[in-house]
Amino acid sequence: MRLDRSGGVFCHVTSLPGRHGIGDLGDGAREFLSFLGDADVGHWQICPLGPTIGAAGESPYQSPSAFAGNPLLIDLDGLVDDGWLDESDLTPVPDFPSDRVDYEAVREYKEPLLRTAFERFDEAGAGDAAPDFDAFCERESWLDDYALFRALSAERDEATWVDWPDPLRTREPAALADARERHAGEIRFREFVQWVFDRQWRELRSVAADEGVSIVGDVPIYVALDSADVWANPEAFRLDEGNRPTAVAGVPPNPGDDGQRWGNPVYDWDRLAERDYDWWIDRFRRLFDLADVARLDHFLGFVKYWAIPAEADDPAAGEWCDGPGRALFETVERELGQAPFIAEDLGFEEPAMNELMAEFGFPGMRVPQYADWCAEGDQYQPMHYPEGVVGYTATHDTNTWVGYFESLPERQRDCFRFNVGADGDRAPEWEIIDEVWASEAVLAMTTLPDLLGRGSEARFNEPGTLDGNWEWRVRREALDDDTADRLFELAGRHVR
What we know:
Blueprint: E1 6-10, H1 27-38, E2 43-45, H2 76-82, H3 103-123, H4 130-139, H5 143-155, H6 166-169, H7 173-182, H8 184-210, E3 214-219, H9 228-232, E4 247-251, E5 260-265, H10 269-274, H11 278-290, E6 293-296, E7 304-309, E8 319-322, H12 326-336, E9 341-343, H13 351-360, E10 364-366, E11 389-392, H14 401-407, H15 410-420, H16 428-438, E12 443-447, H17 448-451, H18 481-493
Parallel strand pairs: 1-2, 1-12, 2-3, 3-6, 6-9, 10-11, 11-12
Antiparallel strand pairs: 4-5, 4-7, 7-8
């Protein structure tokens, strides 16, 4: 795979403007794509599009499904255009904050409207849309189990499916058949919502293509324990006979830290290999239905992974196990062709990982916030980026550039200014955007908060915390011509 030298902007869909309390797939997203087109930006990188839940802090990286779309992102005005809602159904629109997402308020407003739209769709027998809906349900093999899982989860009081009664937890056919019959209406509603999301996302992706913008998706290597993915595909994970995890993911202790226990089930790579990695092939196929390029989070896990016994709380109790390595990606190439992946390789020095990336042509990542600005030749300083990387000013897990810069010790700030030749005329965010765009990195990326010079209040996520993440939103007026023109000029100057 070969990316062209180009630039991009990272922004979570929920952070876009919109009148219904959250960024969605409607006019706000189209305006953002128009802004990117005017700025001659070639890529829009997004977070995973899956449903989120309050218990997981609304994190798109802890979703109930690696395949489904988030119902909260559905454009209600689009449902009015479809004839399944009336404009009067949408009023009164609550007084949502324009600069942050109140997820519970958005849910309380949107979910009843989605059910109203479904009822009208269903009462009309789906009308002219019936063939498309039926084809979607037939094509998406994950959909039936996902819809049943969400119906059962809503019905039951247990914290996760791992605590369900044996017949449901272990997927006994008779129990599943009974559940499908009891929840037929709810299952059809969940399928309708996913179909609507799929239609709207494909329409938005067509708008992106017209603007010359490709979509960069995101693939968390691990899925949430409380997900349809694990419940419906126990053979893909290291589970016991009762379908409970025997090992979970994390990272080992390093000098200065105690390691991390993430708690996600780890994969049974041996069994997946026997099945030609079918679950992963399905996952990648779905991803490339929705995106043009994909970032593979924690790429090291495909080479080796830290498996912690499920009953152990201490990450030090884990051990390194072999991942699938080249066998998985050879299968991907055989089934899907040369898949355009970006490998998240930050923080680990592993020769086998570097060899795998080089063999398949996957660019790695560089983030200048990891740089020692006073060290000569530091690999995270943009002037030292090789061509085969993607350079970022920030990521969804780091501070914004302004927030980072304000927290730097004065000596590091001075070294940064010296290294980039800063003369004090430009804001620090434009200093680093210019440096990343000027670097040899094949793809230069900045986040929307960095592009707009926002501070720590606009960071997407603070790892290790649940409250206050994934809430920041941009106001429509911030996507102005001056900012687009400035980025356009930068792209021309640095041949991106």
